[in-house]
Amino acid sequence: MEAHLTEWLNLSIRWIHMIVGIAWIGASFYFVWLENNLNRANPRDGLSGDLWAIHGGGIYHLEKYKLAPPQMPDNLHWFKWEAYTTWLSGVALLMVVYYLNPSLYLIAPGSDMAPAMAIAIGFGSLIVGWFVYDLLCDSPLGKKPALLGLVLFVLVIFAAWAYSQVFSGRAAYIHTGALIGTIMVGNVFRIIMPAQRALVAAIEQNRTPDPVLPAKGLLRSRHNNYFTLPVLFIMISNHFPSTYGSQYNWLILAGISVLAVLVRHYFNTRHESNRFAWALPAAAVGMICLAFVTAPNRQGGVPNAVPTSPREQSIEAQQAAASAEQGTNGEFAKVRSVIDERCTVCHAAQPSSPLFSAPPAGVMFDTPQQIQQQAAKIHAQAVASQIMPLGNMTNMTQEERDLLGAWIDKGAPIE
Ligand code: HEC
Predict the structure, then answer these.
(1) Is the CB–ligand 1 distance for residue 377 below 6 Å?
(2) Which long-range contacts (CB under 8 A, 24 or more apart) does 301-310 make?
(3) Residue 30 burial (C-beta neighbours within 10 Å; 0-12, 13-18, 19+)
(4) Whether residue 396 has its Cβ less than 6 Å from ligand 1
(5) Which percentage of the chain shows pLDDT scores above 90?
(6) Between these two residues, 103 and 55, which has the higher pLDDT value?
(7) Which distant-in-sequence residues (6+ apart) come within 8 Å of 336 by Cβ?
């Protein structure tokens, strides 16, 4: 029952997180687009530009003021709750998925870190991360936006690497995303909103607004703009074990982030010139390269999880030879007993683990046919990367992984 409740809690919070996240990023994309597409030729007095648009069966006319309208409107719309609720629901989700079950999802398999310690590192790093970022932006480096951007990129990837040393791959990715998300929301809460409030107050009191705050707000909002695409990838990355499950997961994340930032840059600048049009095909080629280098070991890619040493390879060969002598039948019997021992506590129609009320991800290994049909997935999860068993709760050994790998390489025969 408890597992069932957690699942519905997870479902509800995740749903909310997605809805408010779309509202936030959607509005932010819209305003960037608006800014970039304003018609700035001969604007009316006091305007910096305007724009006509049609949407949902209606025609809209939007105007942007150079500073402010002569009179502040009664009802000025602010965009902040989208950001705040995205962060709050994100933290709630982090708790439900990772902090309620630290040994399952958070801590690196095989590590003996105390759950409380892991949670403290996870959540604490988000807060510390914000302060480091904020200090850097306010330091002299803040005057050199390109260099600052580079430093921030290196620091984020360093964080991803550091997380991957103590957390499971999924948790390392999600914490990198949460760190960036915290910075983005911090920017809205601590910099952009105060700057806007000061602007509105100055206008209402007929003062000249202080130019420092808006300049700061602009830098931070530019950072948020470039952060969006990498964060969105991280939020869906849990579906893709060839990324977070790799031994080089932080490097793969760095590669994907570079491509994402390039694409964002193209969209940010294309109204001025098509100078960055090459970014789109370059990103596509980059993704193909990443797909290639993350291919499972047996197809000649970069080794995932734990590289196989020549010695291990020879053990594998011996095992394969031995099982060939026994006939494949004997081999499948062994495979089945490994799976029974290491996987079916969770992956059965009725899991015996109290953590699950239904087979996780719908994956069941009750019959030989089910095992055979999912051989490729088993390879991805338990051989190439060592994501499964989750948190290695069932203490699967390297020999057992090799056994599964050798059997799958032979085409996963069950008779
Ligand atoms: C402690 C429980 C547990 C054990 C033991 C376990 N798994 Fe899983 N497995 C999970 C959970 C939870 C998920 C769903 C992960 C998610 O939310 O993406 C999962 C997902 C999977 C998936 C589907 C992944 C996908 O994205 O389609 C496969 C395949 C899988 N496990 C294989 C195995 C194999 C093979 C073993 C044994 C070597 C194993 N698992 C042991 C809990 C477990």
Answers:
(1) yes
(2) 302/246, 302/248, 303/247, 304/242, 304/245, 304/246, 304/247, 304/384, 304/385, 305/245, 305/246, 305/247, 305/384, 305/385, 305/386, 306/247, 306/386, 306/398, 307/247
(3) exposed
(4) yes
(5) 63
(6) 55
(7) 368, 371
CB contact at 8 A, 383 and 358: no
- List C-alpha distances in Å: 56 to 30, 59, 60: 15, 8, 10
Residue 378 Cβ contacting ligand 1 at under 6 Å: yes
Ligand 1 pocket: which of 97, 357, 363, 383 to mutate (most atoms within 8 A of CB): 363
pLDDT at residue 398 in the model: 94
CB 393 near ligand 1, within 6 Å: yes
pLDDT tens, position by position, 44-73: 888 999 999 999 999 999 999 888 888 888
End-to-end CA distance of the chain: 38
Residue with the smallest CA separation from ligand 1 atom 33 is 388
What is each CA distance from 136 to 20, 226, 228, 229, 368, in whole angstroms?
A: 29, 17, 20, 22, 57
Structural tokens at position 211? 């130019």
The verdict on the CB of residue 346 being under 6 Å from ligand 1 is: yes
Q: 16: which 2 tokens?
A: 């909310």
pLDDT range class, residue 342, cuts 50, 70, 90: very high
Is the peptide bond preceding residue 351 cis, with omega within 30 degrees of 0?
A: no
CA torsion angle 293 294 300 306 (round to 10):
120
Hey, which of 11, 238, 340, 343 would you mutate to test ligand 1's pocket, going by the most ligand atoms within 8 Å of its Cβ?
343
pLDDT digits (tens, 9 = 90+) for 375-392: 988 998 999 888 899 888
Specify the pLDDT at position 321: 53
Q: Find the 360 Cα to ligand 1 centroid distance in Å.
A: 6
Among protein residues, the one whose CA lies closest to atom 27 of ligand 1:
361
Q: Is residue 240 within 8 Å of 173, Cβ to Cβ?
A: no
